[in-house]
Write a structure and sequence with these properties.
Number of domains: 1
Order of helices and strands: HHHH
Structural class: mainly alpha
Strand content: under 5%
Radius of gyration: 32 Å
Mean pLDDT: 84
Largest sheet: none
């Protein structure tokens, strides 16, 4: 028995390597069984990227209106009132509790 193992150790080592790599190709982190989970995660990340691009475009448009070359007085007044907590005497102010 020991003599057979000594003569077939290369075959056993290769069989073990084939099994090891085959198992990880099937069930590992990048394996075939996790393919659908990876696709779902990619779809979720693509949707998140789409939302972030939309938010960035909105913020860039608002920042453009606050530059010296194209200053929007309405937006500047809105931001100043929001940041400083001031209001016009003709404004209706509704006080709300702290936001979570």
């Amino acid at each position: 028995m020991l003599a057979q193992l000594r003569s077939n150790w290369r075959t056993l080592a290769i069989a073990f390597l084939i099994f090891y790599f085959g198992f990880h190709a099937l069930a590992g982190d990048g394996g075939l069984l996790t393919w659908s989970k990876r696709n779902e995660m990619m779809a979720a990340r693509a949707e998140e990227l789409k939302q972030l691009k939309s938010q960035r475009a909105d913020m860039e448009a608002r920042a453009l209106l606050l530059r010296n070359e194209s200053l929007s007085k309405d937006l500047l007044e809105e931001r100043a009132r929001s940041l400083l907590g001031f209001s016009d005497p003709r404004d209706y102010v509704v006080r709300m509790g702290p936001q979570a």
